[in-house]
Amino acid sequence: MNFRRDHSSLFYFFRYGELQGLNKQETAERYGKEKVHEWRRSFDIPPPKGESLEMCSKRAVSYFKDFIEPQLKSGKHVMVAAHGNSLRSIIMYLDRLTSQEVTTLELSTGVPLLYIYTEGKYMSRGSPVGPTEAGVYAYTQV
């Protein structure tokens, strides 16, 4: 089986600005727990000199629409691996979530999500329980 690997900086991690390199405890000590929680769980409030989820969403969804959707429309199978906030942004688009709903969306690291594109719509097939089931799930749920 041949795979083509594409790489885009538009799927890079969330840009934390002045918080870059700080751990959660250091950040809370410097800015306060409430402010850190606001930055982490809001859609449109960025950390100082950083990026909000809304800003991340604009670049990630733009890339998805411009480069991934055309491949899906042509019948290709596509796997997307990206940072959590980029993935949350794409899921917001695919599942038509509101900005409020996406702020509560939790993704498990390393657990794949399967979407089927057919007749111009995305159908979520959920998530297999573990990596050993992922292959079976992807091949049997067509």
Could you describe the 3D structure shown?
This protein has 142 residues and is mainly alpha-helical. It has a domain at 16-50. 45% of the residues lie in helices and 6% in strands. It is built from 6 helices and 2 strands, in the order αααααββα. A two-stranded antiparallel ribbon has the order 1-2. α1 packs across α2 and α3 crosses α4. The longest helix has 21 residues, at 53-73. Mean pLDDT is 81; it is low at 130-142.
Fraction of residues in β-strands? 5-15%
User: If you compute it from the alpha carbons, what radius of gyration comes out, rounded to the nearest whole angstrom?
Assistant: 17 Å
Distance between the termini: 19 Å
Helix content: 40-55%
Strand order of the largest sheet: 1-2
Residue stretches low in confidence (pLDDT < 50, at least 5 long) are 130-142
**How many extended strands?**
2
Q: What's the rounded overall pLDDT mean? A: 81
Order of helices and strands: HHHHHEEH
Number of helices: 6
Quick one: overall form?
Answer: elongated
Report the sheet with the most strands, covering strand number, pairing sense and barrel closure.
2 strands, antiparallel
Q: Return the structural class.
A: mainly alpha
Protein name: phosphoglycerate mutase (2,3-diphosphoglycerate-dependent)
GO molecular function: phosphoglycerate mutase activity
EC number: 5.4.2.11
InterPro entries: His_Pase_superF_clade-1, His_PPase_superfam, Phosphogly_mut1
